[in-house]
Model the fold of this input.
Amino acid sequence: MSLEKYFARYGKATFTLFLINVSVYVLESILSGNPLSISIEVLARLGQWNYAVLNYGWWWQLISAMFVHVGLLHIAFNMYFLLMMGRQLEGILGPKRLVMVYLVSGLAGNLLTLLLLPANSVSAGASGALFGIVGALILITGVVGGNMQGALINAFVLFLINSILPSVNVYAHLGGLLVGMAIGYYYGRQIKRHLMARMYGYGW
Done:
């Protein structure tokens, strides 16, 4: 299958984010000399090392870390969920808003990590951004479907299940999820108003 078919199948923005993540992982593997597990030195340089952010002014790590992964299984799981969930949200909100949700949610998760984890902590991964995507999907579905209680329960269960896994950055997940839910609530209300306008013939 050509690249054009993958872009059409998964969405332009979703597959572009996928390619960026994979390309960064290839670079990590080359620098580490190991494609299965990335060295802590490389993660501290390309991911988010709180000490470097606070003391060296490496604020760009708050963005770069959401494209960096610690090992092959880590990126494999995250990219699977990016392709599955990203294309759904892109189909609802469009490519630009999908990228916005990814970046803003990932940034929120990384900022919470900076505030709440020790200065010597090193973190990496797209999980915060992915939680934002899933949170947005859950809230859009809840608002449009008129089942906010169910949406909030689903979001809570999602967070709870993932927070008990080993070596998980709970703060990145929480920050990304909450911001994604807020974005989803906003666009869910817009979509619902639009649907009501079409149904009853009034402007919005």
In short: The chain has a mean pLDDT of 93. The chain has one domain: 3-200. Residues 170-200 form the longest helix (31 residues).
